[in-house]
Amino acid sequence: MSGKKVKPLKWMPDPNVGYHVVRRPDGGMQFTFSDVNRSTLEHWRDFALTHLYDSDRLTRNLYDLRQIDHVSEEAIKFAVEANSDPAARNIRLGVVVANENVRKAVMEISALTTIPGGVEMRIFTNLDEAEEWLSSPLDVIT
Fold first, then answer.
1. Measured between alpha carbons, how far is 95 from 63 in angstroms, rounded to an integer?
2. So what's the pLDDT on residue 1?
3. Backbone angles phi and psi of 50, in degrees to 5
4. Phi–psi pair at 64, nearest 5 degrees
5. What is the pTM assigned to this prediction?
6. CA angle, 13 as apex, 8 and 15 as ends, to 5°?
7. Which alpha helices (H) appear in the chain, and where do they start and end?
8. Considering the domain 19-135, what is its CATH architecture?
9. pLDDT means per 10 residues in the chain (142 residues)?
10. SS3 74
C-alpha cells in the first residue's frame, strides 16, 4: 500500500444489523449486506458518514449485495444521502448484485446522487470482475 497510513476501520460487529465490514488490502472497505432493514440502514449510514467525514484521499470500496433480493425506497434514500456527501467524490465503488431488481435500485441511486463528480460507481454480477475494476489505477477512468 505504498507506505500510506491506513485509517482505522472503527467497525464493531453488531448482531442486530444485517451487514459487516472489513478493511480491504488497498485501504478501502468491503461491505457485505444480508439485510437492508431500517436498523441496518441507520447503522450503516452512521458508519459510512463517519468515515466520509475525514476522507482525504481516493478510496476503493466494494458493496456485496448478492444476498439482497429487494432494495426499498427507504434504502435508496439512505444511499443517495451518503453518495451525495461531498467527500463521496473520493470513492471508487464496485457494487456486486445477484438480480435485476437490485441492479435497477443501484442504478436509481446513482441517477439520484446530487454531488457533481461524485462516487465513481460500477455494477457487477461477478465479484472477481468488481475486484479487477477496483484494482485498476484510480487516475484511470474506465
1. 5
2. 43
3. -65, -40
4. -100, 105
5. 0.87
6. 165
7. 38-53, 73-83, 100-112, 127-135
8. 2-Layer Sandwich (3.30)
9. 60 89 90 96 88 68 97 93 73 94 94 73 96 81 46
10. helix
